[in-house]
């Protein structure tokens, strides 16, 4: 019966489809369905460590779990920190179920296998969380029993210092691998572990508060469960079909929004079998309340910059405007993360996002050894070649993913200006615009504006600043190609309900005062559909109603739901009269209102 519940939630075909959409089941039922999917893996073969963890959590078939674990360990550990975290979960879910032989094999692997610590923020958190919890599980053991050569207590202390340092950095200057539809799971998973299994009360409390913190980071920036931009890291298939992100599973698990993936992702499983933390009601309200439009601000930080910069981290300034019909979101442009950065997009609401590309965005297809050497420590000779082995479009002129030092972005509510000043001699002297296969009406107007409808609810006006042509995209849609060094695009979004039809929207846009200069750098002066005077010149601070935007006063979080100042180590989460305050300096969480 539990497996049938999951199959219904995940969209597996059954003999008779439901007559009408049902209210999503409560959190515990959704969590159980995800775990049960792994325990009773529906595909051929089995799900490896995940299936062992799920069955141990359910206290099912411990003899099979022991036999399978020894088989996997005998085959030879691999995967570094991605091996560490499932084995750590199994060790803590054991609770006397595994055979002495299986338990011995598990412990021995932590002596004979030396996992690589990795080179990213998520790698480090997975690595140190696993090391912390395994050292806690086997206290008072000498360095000769650990791959590190350090004692249990030394391992525990090294891991504790890193984890606490990461929490402090995140709650003072923002997360580095921020707002990733995929990698958010790699942060939630280890924090769920620490919340469930850390014996130190301070570590347990810190981890539980960080779960609130990261879930709060997602809640105001989702549209029907889809994580809207900008993102530090995203894969191309998740970029165009936003439903495909790991974030979709978490949004569905936490809040019942959107649609679950056909089979739950690995990160959600391990989150569920550890603390399986259910967000408080205030976060549920924030994640689902779109009755009033709002602007949400965030400050993040760049990944570690190893070369060419005086500061290890640079600031990232994010703006997201959300209403029930659509979201517009952006950062300030530039190279803020290597390879997988996504700087801005428009996302419109659709009844069912599966297979739908409900987004529009532009980018400059930049790649360089300088970018890679800023953020990675490998040498220059084979840098691009090495990256392209796994990120195949990185060095392609047709790519639609990645940041560029020649792109600057300014957003005010649902108006966005993206300007490009590409130097002569640049490898790819053009910009690419992604126009989805799922765009509805589209009108290329003699004024230079492109008017289109996204779904049933959203009108979008798009104004390239230079001439362009269209190129096909494999799988559907088309790419706007504009080969000019000084270039840009203006985007204005509105709800269909605000206008009688697309032509009425187009008429309103044409009437907006607009001045564009392209030399010596692109510059735009315009009145937005919301009546605000906007001015933006490439390389200069933008202004709203003649007042310059002050990035120095940008909050860590700001808007109707979240409030956090830079360096404060505090976050206030609120909805109506409900309030949760997180104080990481003193490890205090307080609630008020109902």
Provide a short characterization of the protein structure.
Helix content is 33%, strand content 22%. With 594 residues, the protein is of the alpha+beta class.
Characterise this structure.
There is one protein chain. By secondary structure, the protein is an alpha+beta fold. The chain folds into 2 domains: about 1-5 and about 25-290; about 295-565. The protein is about 35% helix and about 20% strand. It contains 17 helices and 26 strands. The strands form 5 sheets. A 9-stranded antiparallel sheet has the order 14-15-10-7-6-5-4-3-22, with no helix packed on it. A 6-stranded antiparallel sheet has the order 8-9-16-13-12-11, covered by helices on one side. The protein has a 5-stranded antiparallel sheet with strand order 17-18-19-20-21, with no helix packed on it. Strand 25 and strand 26 (about 590) form a beta hairpin. The protein is globular, with a radius of gyration of 25 Å. The relative contact order is 0.09.
Task: Record keyword descriptors for this entry.
single chain; 594 residues; alpha+beta; 2 domains; nine-stranded antiparallel β-sheet; six-stranded antiparallel β-sheet; 17 helices; 26 strands; 33% helix
Helical content class: 25-40%
Could you tell me the number of beta strands?
A: 26
How many independent structural domains? 2
Beginning-to-end CA distance, first to last residue: 36 Å
Please tally the helical runs, counting DSSP H or I stretches of 4 or more residues.
Answer: 17
Q: What structural category do the secondary elements indicate?
A: alpha+beta
Sheet with the most strands, sense and barrel status: 9 strands, antiparallel
Q: Overall pLDDT, averaged? A: 94
Q: Strand fraction band?
A: 15-25%
Using only C-alpha atoms, the radius of gyration works out to 25 Å
- Low-pLDDT windows of residues: 1-21
Molecular shape:
globular
Strand order across the largest sheet:
14-15-10-7-6-5-4-3-22
């Amino acid at each position: 019966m539990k497996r049938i519940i999951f199959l219904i939630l995940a969209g597996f075909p059954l003999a008779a489809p439901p007559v009408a959409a049902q209210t999503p089941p409560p959190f515990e039922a959704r969590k159980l369905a995800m775990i049960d999917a792994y325990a009773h893996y529906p595909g051929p073969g089995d799900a490896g460590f995940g299936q062992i963890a799920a069955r141990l959590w359910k206290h099912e078939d411990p003899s099979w779990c022991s036999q399978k674990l020894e088989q996997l360990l005998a085959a030879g550990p691999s995967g570094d920190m991605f091996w560490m975290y499932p084995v750590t979960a199994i060790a803590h879910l054991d609770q006397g179920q595994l055979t002495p032989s299986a338990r011995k094999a598990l412990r021995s692997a932590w002596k004979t296998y030396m996992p690589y610590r990795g080179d990213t923020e998520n790698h480090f958190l997975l690595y140190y969380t696993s090391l912390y919890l395994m050292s806690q599980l086997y206290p008072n053991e000498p360095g000769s029993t650990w791959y590190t050569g350090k004692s249990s207590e030394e391992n525990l202390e090294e891991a504790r210092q890193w984890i606490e340092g990461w929490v402090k950095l995140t709650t003072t200057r923002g997360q580095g691998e921020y707002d990733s539809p995929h990698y958010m799971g790699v942060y939630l998973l280890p924090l769920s572990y620490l919340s469930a299994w850390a014996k130190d009360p301070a570590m347990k409390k810190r981890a539980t508060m960080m779960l609130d913190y990261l879930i709060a980071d997602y809640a105001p920036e989702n549209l029907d469960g889809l994580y809207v931009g900008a993102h530090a890291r995203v894969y191309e298939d998740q970029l165009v079909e936003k439903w495909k992100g790991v974030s979709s599973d978490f949004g569905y698990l936490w809040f019942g929004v959107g649609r679950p993936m056909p089979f739950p992702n690995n990160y959600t499983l391990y989150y569920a079998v550890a603390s399986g933390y259910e967000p408080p009601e205030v976060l549920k309200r924030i994640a689902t309340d779109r009755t009033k439009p709002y602007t949400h601000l965030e400050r993040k930080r760049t990944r570690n910059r190893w070369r060419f910069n005086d500061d290890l981290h640079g600031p990232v300034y994010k703006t997201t405007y959300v209403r029930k019909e659509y979201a517009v979101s952006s950062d300030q442009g530039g190279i803020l993360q290597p390879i997988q950065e996504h700087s801005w997009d428009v996302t419109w609401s659709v009844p069912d996002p599966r297979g739908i590309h409900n987004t529009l965005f532009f980018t400059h297809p930049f790649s360089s050894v300088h970018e890679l050497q800023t953020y990675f420590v490998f040498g220059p000779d084979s840098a691009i070649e090495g990256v392209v082995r796994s990120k195949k479009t990185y060095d392609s002129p047709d790519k639609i993913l990645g940041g560029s030092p020649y792109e600057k972005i300014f957003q005010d509510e649902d108006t966005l200006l993206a300007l490009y000043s590409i130097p002569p001699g640049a490898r790819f002297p053009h910009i690419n615009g992604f126009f989805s296969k799922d765009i509805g009406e589209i009108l290329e107007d003699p004024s230079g504006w492109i008017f289109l409808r996204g779904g049933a609810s959203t009108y979008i006006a798009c104004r390239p600043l230079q001439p362009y042509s269209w190129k096909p995209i494999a799988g559907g849609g088309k790419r706007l190609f504009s080969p000019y060094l000084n270039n840009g695009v203006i985007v204005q979004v509105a709800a269909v309900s605000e206008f009688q039809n697309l032509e009425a929207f187009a008429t309103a846009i044409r009437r907006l005062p607009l001045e564009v200069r392209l030399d010596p750098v692109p510059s735009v002066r315009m009145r937005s559909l919301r009546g605000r005077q906007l001015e933006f010149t490439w390389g200069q601070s933008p202004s709203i109603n003649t007042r310059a935007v002050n990035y120095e006063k940008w909050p860590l979080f700001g808007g109707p739901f979240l409030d956090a100042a830079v360096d404060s180590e505090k976050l206030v989460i609120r909805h109506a009269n409900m309030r949760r305050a997180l104080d990481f300096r003193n490890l205090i969480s307080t609630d008020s209102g109902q």
